[in-house]
Amino acid sequence: MIELVRLLLLDFAPAATALYGLAFLVLSLLVGLPLRRGPVQNAAFGLLILGGAADLSLYGLRELAAPAIWFGPLTLIIALAEVWALRLLVLTDRPQPYPPLALSDAALLLVFLAGLWVVRIIQADPSSSLSSHLGWIPLYAAESLRLGRFPQPAELAGGAGILESVAYASDMIGLTILAAWAGEVKPYPAYLASSILAAGLAVTVLARALAPSRLAVAVFLVLCAALMGLDPFFRTVIGRHWGDTFQILGGALILAVLTGPDGLRPRMLAAAGAAAFLVFSRHYAAVYWAALMGIGFIAVTWQQRRLDLRPWLALTTLFLINAAREIWAILAQPTPWYPGNRQVAEMPTSAHYWVSGILHDLGLLTEGAVGLPTLVRALYLVAPVLALGLVPALRRRPGVLLLPFVVLAAPFILQALTGYRTAETINKMMIIAVFFSAWYPAHVLALCAGEQRWRSPAPAWERKAVGAASAVVLFAVILASGPLTRFVHWGFDAYRAHNVDRNIAERLQDSLGERYAEEAARPLIYTYFEPGLGLRNYIGGDVYRDFDWWGATVRGKMAGAHDLGDLVAQLGYPNLWISAPHNYGAYSGPDQERFQHELTEVETAPWVERVITFNHARFVVVRRPQSR
What we know:
Number of strands: 5
Helix content: 55-70%
Largest sheet: 5 strands, mixed
Mean pLDDT: 87
Strand order of the largest sheet: 2-1-3-5-4
Radius of gyration: 26 Å
Shape: globular
Number of domains: 2
Distance between the termini: 56 Å
Structural class: mainly alpha
């Protein structure tokens, strides 16, 4: 049992992650306090506002080339300004209190959150094998605080190229920098903490919105657990340290406030207020905000029979401030590396692709097939039909059943307007509605319970049942601590076994011995970044001295280079980091294609000293002139 606690809470990575998660939670509660929405929604809104304010501070200080010392105070000023603007201009009505969460529901929620912590804390090392963000964000935070300023993407030695699109990454980079600004020299635990906290708050916000129906909360959590095991999309987004944190938490918060106890006006304003922060996660989330704003404005104006522009203008101003970086990137700094351009250029146009993609988005197909995961994912489509048939009173209020579908519809509106989706079977645009399949059936059940006045067991029975269940769970955990400890060890080992960056770093050290530090400090040429970009988290060195194979600097040397060895020599003999067998075909020109065969057969080149391999990844140690 002691070993299990050590692995999950007391070792450096989990302990640091837990402390940062607690710090972010306290800050979020304080920031969201003026909104008066109760601790759970205050924390959810507060985390969105705090993370957004930190991102805005980064953008502003980076453009002004200002010292990083101003980052903390500026983040606080922006966060306070935005929360009070929401409080005074938008969320002016005092929210109706939610019914209390039953003790049994709270206990079940804690069990689920504990399981989420176990699944997430196993990912205690940065791995760009999962996402380039996991490699890039800690590197950028540490480098910025080392330099005392926030370097521009163009300062990368590789120049404008693929890595520029990675440097564009936002999401929770601001909170990670805030942790580094406060003194953390290895920012990854803070980045992981922000992600775990957001996922935990998302589940809690949605569970809280189902009170007081004990059965509804239980169904929601059970369906979440089922999807974690059955649905690859849900498992990737919620079970892994994936990113897209603003979409995960923002989408959950929007669902909760849309179905809350307030009137239509405060609900739609709160939903649009939460949606104004989605853009920090993905630039296309601007369309989600526009959809919620448009639907909300029309619905509220129609209901009130009068035009009240002030809160909607305030929300528009808030969104434009949050989206300033996107607007600037589109209007003033057009670049082929802007996120999404490559996907749009390469988007398939076949009818099968689009029909299959939409069926996957709706949950009617899972990885191209119909099976048990599909039955769970598509349950939300059956729930309203059954509710209308079983509860006649709901037929007079179909709006309460239909309103949550606004969140599910937003990605389809984007797809209809732009023709954009990220893949056939897994579509990142659906992350805003990742909880919909689990939450909506429980929401319908809660509505039915409210109409039929279904009653829960007496509180005395509940306390006794929860106490007995808690004792049984604790006793079972103590008895099974040995197998559980082995399972957690297996989880850590399995995660690390697939981490290309970490494994190459370990093999590099074993292979080079005393020369490891010298070779690790040499510049690299990256031919790919997912995996690959996280390597400097393990070997150290300066990522801003590295080269992007697809960047302007390398491309500028290609035309005059006789072969790959000559190109490497012209760049000063950096090492090659071929982290995957893929390339970025949409950006390949004759020069890149000319070197492709040499990259494939690089082991046989006379200018190569040695090649360290792991799976498909190859770290190429280049001979320097003095070592020939």
